[in-house]
Amino acid sequence: MNPVELIIKKRNGINLSEKEIEFFINGFLSGEIPDYQMSAFLMSIYFRGMTSEETVALTKIMLYSGEVLDLSLIHGKKVDKHSTGGVGDKTSLVIAPIASAAGVVVPMISGRGLGHTGGTLDKLESIPGFRTNLSKEEFLNVIEKIGVCLIGQTKEIAPADKKIYALRDVTGTVESIPLICASIMSKKLAEGINGLVLDVKTGNGAFMKTLEDSENLAKNLKDIAEAFGVKTIAYITNMNQPLGNFVGNWLEVYESVKILKNEVHNELTELCHILAGTMIYLGEKAPSVDEGIRLSKKLIENGKAYQKFLEIVESQSGDISYIENLEKYPEPKFKLEVKATRRGFLNKINSFEIGMLGIELGAGRMKYTDTIDPKAGFIFYKKIGNEIKSGDIIAEIRTDKENHEYFINKFLNAIEITDDKPLDEPLIFKTI
Predict the structure, then answer these.
(1) Is 365 a catalytic residue?
(2) 56 Cβ contact list (under 8 Å, min separation 6)
(3) Which member of 92, 126, 176, 183 is catalytic?
(4) Catalytic position from the list 77, 116, 162, 168
(5) Rounded to an integer, what distance in angstroms lies between the CA atom of residue 341 and that of residue 390?
């Protein structure tokens, strides 16, 4: 086969066989096909798309470019959750211990934040000592011991995805749905899971801005998972405002622990119970999703989910004293109050702008080499639909940086206060 001929074939909208895709991916992984030819190949996929058969073939080739974990000796169904990313989305920190406390095995491979969205690994690593870079052997040992482990992608898992993603990120091909699906599912399927819950975000703080695009992505992800025998349920969820009241790495750990201790009840809590309940159902620890949700709530109320979170932290070398005493954590240098300049109703929060402002505060990174300040972020005292008087505190900005007036003005420019109360939007737009 000839790489140029395959690039031209895909460029002209002709479907590729599994053998042809395999030749190209394996050639790139071995170094025989250079970056510039892979870049052209990715761009041809971006513009021409892929059939479901091609996408399944691409996923399979990327999946088997590395190791697939064998968890067959560990008793119980293995279930994971994948979110497409958003602002304030810390559901993994809550639902992994809940599902595990219910008896579901949870092998969770997570990612870092890049751009305006936060990453589960960065949040967990804000806990002093917490290790996410476990080896495959350590990962399996922790799962065998406590039934749950949260790590980053290891060098053994889907190496083709790791190499291709780095190129997608710098060639403007990240948004391609076939490439997104193959990237996500090659990592998830490598976990050796039986079930998967998908949380596909839609709205101004999501990767997919429209309901139509989000639904298309969810259906493609579900079809691929089920082609590999993984039972999957997808939710299209609202990302038109940050999820919960805390945004920023340690701040999101703080809110997650408060939920696990049954001290916070908001839309984040509700979504966590739905996602955890679905994991419990797919893990065959409840006869229905509704029963799974009921069990999820019970595991919060009786303290078992919180105890499981402590086990996770301890088993991955984290200092549990910071979880048991949340106020022990270092404070930021500055806490800036954002006050309303008029009365009315909070009508809009541009989550993308809030996420980008968070990066400027130190809460995120624009490139992998950037250093994160785990203390930086926001606490929201008002959310969309809340009535506001002039001078009310809408949010608190936390940072060690000194551009105070700039930060406050940028925050105010990311929100909208109107005379009329906005219509309520659902938390979940659709279940697939």
Answers:
(1) no
(2) 223, 224, 227
(3) 183
(4) 168
(5) 5
Q: Is 187 a catalytic residue?
A: yes
Judgement on whether residues 122 and 141 belong to the same structural domain of the protein: yes
- Which of 78, 187, 188, 375 is an active site residue? 187
The answer to whether 168 is a known catalytic residue is: yes
Q: Is the pTM of this model over 0.90?
A: yes
Domain limits at 391? 332-418
Amino acid at 73: L
Backbone phi, then psi, for 80, in 5-degree steps?
Answer: -130, 170
Separation between Cα atoms, residue 197 and residue 225, nearest integer Å: 10
> Does one domain contain both 281 and 384?
no
Note whether residue 62 is domain-resident: no
CATH number of the domain enclosing 18: 1.20.970.10
Q: Is residue 235 part of a domain?
A: yes
Q: Which of 89, 122, 161, 199 does the annotation list as catalytic?
A: 161
For 97-138, the pLDDT digits (tens) are 999 999 999 999 888 776 677 789 999 999 999 999 998 899
Residues 222 and 347 in one domain: no
Q: In this structure, what are the phi and psi dihedrals at residue 344, rounded to the nearest 5 degrees?
A: 150, -145
Q: Which residue has the tokens 């070398």?
A: 317
